[in-house]
Design a protein that fits this description.
The complex is a heterodimer. Chain A is mainly alpha-helical. Chain A contains four helices and no strands. The chains are: A mainly alpha, B mainly alpha.
Chain lengths: 102, 329
């Protein structure tokens, strides 16, 4: 019992660390691409660790499945929107490159 | 421990609300509004009103946020050059003559004082025994559902919910009146992006299933027509953004039918109940469960279609002039 709680707390702390690092990155990084990088790291790893901690804390297979599907869909949405934002920015920076590709 | 979280959440909510009003750049306004909506949803969760929290997150933060983002994009597209002028005008308005601001400020202060008094009175005069909670709980077996919130919304006070559906339809009508019912074309945006298309196609059935689950789950827990409608509406908006607007494939009479069927069936049901000698929306207890489910399903379909149509139509209106101005690539 004790060990489970310790692991939960460790996972939560690691998740919060990634969120903190991601927030710091968004605030401090110079351009959009590196900011996106920081942001998606926070989403993926931070939320992943927190989801793992919560699943361990609740310790019911159905709840764990639901929690991990939340994580999975967040991953999907965040990586897609990150890609779209990056693509938009890239086309805005160099509008000619797209035509060459096509 | 939890009181600290509550106090922090309250401070955060008020702070975000003030910031989203006071910040000078439109982009910041919109994103602070997002954050405010999420903080508000968390506050509802802390208050134990999960239904309201889901609706707040879905409609106020989600759907309204999408509309705001869309408006922001159009605004920055059409007037990015005029942006500086706009800021100048805005600043000059702020600094021009402070006397003209006296009346609005007075009104604001009076309104805030009134709000303060009303909320203080509301806190002061919490009725003994939780008001109508006991009455609602007592009648729960006759309502046809197990969740008290759904029972209140769709049985005891169905009139309010019926009007709410009407309000959304009215909003759509207002959009139609401004823009007219246009023929839906495929938008020109990033539609040929394979990744976006795959993600949209992947998430469409899941969103649909989840919406149906929320709709059905409303019988016994937090959920229901409005929450499901936002999820289904999200499908419509995603498909529209992904270059597959559903309104191009269904005929217009069907669209009109879908848009009005929620309100219409509700009204028809109420009329039939009156005609058979009951009060408006006084379902016979034996059929209440199935009637509520039908009403909710149709309402969800109508609201989802209305939300999609509002988004698509607003998008349409702003795309028209852009196309005529811009040379084709």
């Amino acid at each position: 019992m004790m060990i489970k709680e310790i692991i939960t707390v460790i996972l939560l702390v690691v998740g919060c660390f990634f969120f903190l690092a991601g927030t710091l990155g968004v605030l401090r990084f110079p351009d959009l691409f590196s900011r996106l990088h920081a942001l998606t790291k926070a989403d993926n790893l931070g939320l992943g660790f927190i989801a793992a901690a919560m699943a361990l804390h609740i310790a019911s297979p159905w709840a764990a499945l639901k929690i991990f599907s939340i994580w999975f869909f967040t991953l999907l949405a965040s990586s897609t929107s990150c890609y779209l934002i990056a693509r938009f920015q890239k086309e805005k920076d160099q509008p000619s490159s797209r035509k060459e590709e096509e | 421990m939890s009181i600290i979280i509550d106090i922090l959440l309250a401070i955060l909510t008020v702070y975000l609300a003030l910031q989203s009003l006071l910040v000078h750049r439109l982009t910041q306004n919109v994103f602070l509004f997002f954050a405010f909506g999420l903080a508000l949803a968390l506050a509802w969760v802390r208050l134990g009103a999960v239904d309201v929290a889901i609706t707040e997150a879905a409609i106020a933060s989600g759907f309204l946020g999408v509309l705001f983002l869309d408006a922001l994009r159009d605004f920055s597209d059409t007037s990015s050059k005029k942006w500086d002028d706009l800021e100048l005008v805005r600043n000059s308005l702020h600094s021009k003559n402070p006397k003209s601001l006296f009346l609005p400020r007075l009104a604001l202060v009076l309104g805030l004082l009134l709000f303060l008094f009303i909320s203080l009175e509301a806190i002061w005069k919490i009725p003994d025994g939780g008001g109508l909670t006991a009455a609602a709980e007592a009648m729960l077996p006759e309502s046809g559902v197990e969740h008290p919130v759904t029972a209140v919304l769709l049985n005891f006070r169905a009139y309010d919910t019926w009007l709410e559906i009407g309000v959304i339809l009215l909003g759509l009508l207002a959009v139609f009146t401004v823009g007219g019912i246009k023929i839906y074309r495929k938008p020109q945006a990033i539609t040929h992006d394979p990744l976006l298309r795959q993600v949209i196609l992947f998430s469409t059935p899941i969103l649909f299933l989840f919406g149906a689950f929320i709709l059905y789950f409303g019988k016994s827990g937090p959920g229901g027509a409005f929450q499901a409608a936002v999820l289904w509406g999200a499908i419509g908006i995603l498909l529209y953004l992904g270059g597959k607007p559903i309104f191009t494939v269904i005929p217009r009479w069907l669209l009109r039918l879908i848009l009005t069927i929620g309100l219409g069936f509700f009204l028809l049901l109420g009329f039939l109940i009156i005609a058979s000698g009951g009060a408006l929306f006084e379902y016979p207890p034996a059929y209440a469960g199935i009637l509520i489910l039908i009403v909710e399903t149709l309402a969800a379909i109508s609201i989802a279609a209305a939300l999609t149509a509002i988004f698509a139509n607003l998008n349409q209106m702003t795309e028209e002039p852009k196309e005529s101005n811009q040379p084709i690539e």
